[in-house]
Each structure stands twice: as C-alpha cells, then as structure tokens.
Amino acid sequence: MTKNRYRSTYHRPWQTPWVRSTLMLCLILLVIALLVEGFSRLNIYGKMLMAQRSRDRPLKSIVMIGAPHWLAGPILNSLAAEAVQYTVFNKRHPAYAAELRNPVNGKILQIIARHFTTDQAQGFNAWIKRVDYVRRVWLPHEQIIEIACRYRRPAALISVNGKYYLMSPHAIRLPGAYAPMDLPELSWLMRISGITVAVPAPGKPFAGQGVKLGLKMITLLSGHPFSSQIQCVNLANMYAHVPSTTPEIVLKTRFGTQIYWGLPPGKEGFYEVPASRKLQLLNDVYQQYHRIDAARAYLDVRSDEVLVPRPPPATTQDAQ
To answer: pTM for this structure?
Structure first.
C-alpha cells in the first residue's frame, strides 16, 4: 500500500498532448515540403524531356484520316491546311504554334476540334459534321497530328439562278458553287430544279417546302435499279391547282426524256395512285426495256397503268 502511495507521476515529453500535436504538425509540414519539392523537380525534368523530345521529333504535318471515298483529295488538303493556318500562323493566338509542337499538350488538340465544329462552321469546314478525335502519332523522328471526322454527305444538287450547289440529306449547303460545265463530274447526284430559294452560306440550311419535297423525292427514288437513270426532280409546277393536266412533279432522265410523276408522296388522294405503285410501275418498265422511259419521249405513271405516247409513224425510208 505504501509503495502505490509514492508511485512516480513522471511522463515522457512525447506523451504530453500538446507536444504530440506539435510533432504531428511538423511531420505533416515536412511531408508537404517534400511533395512540393518533388513535384517541382519532376516538372523541371518533364520540361527538359519535352524540349528534347520536340527537338528529336518535331511536328511534321497535320492530316485528315478516315475520310469517305467520295470526298476529294483537294478538299481534305484544304481542311488540313486550315488547321495549320489556324494553329501555326494564327496572328491572334501566336502561342498556338508552340502548344502544337509541345508533345504533351492536349489542350491544343481540343482547340483544333472546336475550331472545326464550333468556332468556324462555314467555308470548307462545312464538310465536317463532327470531330471524332484529334491525336498525336509518334514516329521515330517526327510527330503527326491526325484528325478523324464525320463528314456531311452530298445528297443532291440544287439549281439556283444558273448555278448548282451541293446539299446534304438535311438540306445543309456544302461548300462550292458549280457551273453547268462542272455537271459531268457530279452526274452521280440527282438535281432539284424549278424552285426559287435563297442560297445560304456554306454550313447553313436551305429553307423552303420545295427543298424538303425535292429531298424527299430523291430519298424515295434512290436505291432502285432505275435510279441512276434519273437526272433531275423538276418542281416548276409544284403549286399547280389540282386537278391539272400538267403534273406537279416531273422527273427528267439522263436520256433527255421525262417521267410525269404527279403529286407529292402522301398527297395523291383520289386523283392518283400512291407513290409505292408509281415506283412499282417504273420498276416494271425498267425490267422490260432496261430504260426507265421505255425509249419514249415521256411516261405518265399517275394512273394504275403506264401511259406512253404513240411511237411516230414509220416513214417510207424506214419501211425500206
């Protein structure tokens, strides 16, 4: 009992609460200082590596990859040149050139993608619908910037005041204005003619019911065996009063002949057979004659039977 009464109350210094708190704070500050110093040295080392890597593998070129077969090479070259002009020779943002050559700078890749889609949707950039990715490709002694995009597909040519303009399936005007002499190179596209519309800037939509109807007709006619023989959807009589002897829609063929289509799809009512029947009639004619016009000046598919003009009478010379 006497021994417990005189037990010592001495404590080691680190067992005192305020001493332990002070030691813990010092330890935390030491760890923070080491981390800051480590990150600082790592940053310096990274900059040295970047400088050496940039010298060893400088930026070689910017290329557009994954383009569809119908998109011409000069257009792709123009798009790549636009990216170079915007980054390397941008007077408003001179820092872009250094960022582009920085091998670990990903921000400049985002800037390029935004430029093609948001900042500048007109001009040749109107070909681009969406940017999938922009990335660096490392080669032994150079680096390349690759840009992969989704492109707007031409669906039709629209004729306005003697010039022709490319249009996407959603009526977006694509770059370029074409003269009649350019049409042979664009013969794979159907045309829309006979309507008056304002020509928007590239990247902006054509407006008007005629444009919508023309694209609807082209979509309806595409994919059939005879579609390659249809050259133009003429809507000059689109607002004719029904009934009328002149059809609202006339298809012009590549042979210089005409197909009297009639009313717009879904608007036939009691006056004409539906569009599905008209397509069947055209397919039957094509299967029999291998020509959508049966080698006649015109065909009329507005009724349940194909109406054709009588062949010209044979002359004495033909009879011989």
So the answer is: 0.71
Which distant-in-sequence residues (6+ apart) come within 8 Å of 78 by Cβ?
124
pLDDT digits (tens, 9 = 90+) for 253-293: 999 999 999 999 998 888 899 999 999 999 999 999 999 99
Residue 305 lies in a domain: no
Which residue reads 């000069």 in tokens? 74
Please check whether residues 172 and 225 belong to one and the same domain: yes
User: The domain that contains 248 carries what CATH number?
Assistant: 3.40.50
Residues in the chain, how many? 320
Residue 3 lies in a domain: no
CA end-to-end distance (rounded Å), the chain: 151
Where helices occur in 57-177 by DSSP H, the ranges are 73-87, 95-101, 107-114
139 and 173 belong to one structural domain = no
User: Model confidence at 241, in pLDDT bands (50, 70, 90)?
Assistant: low
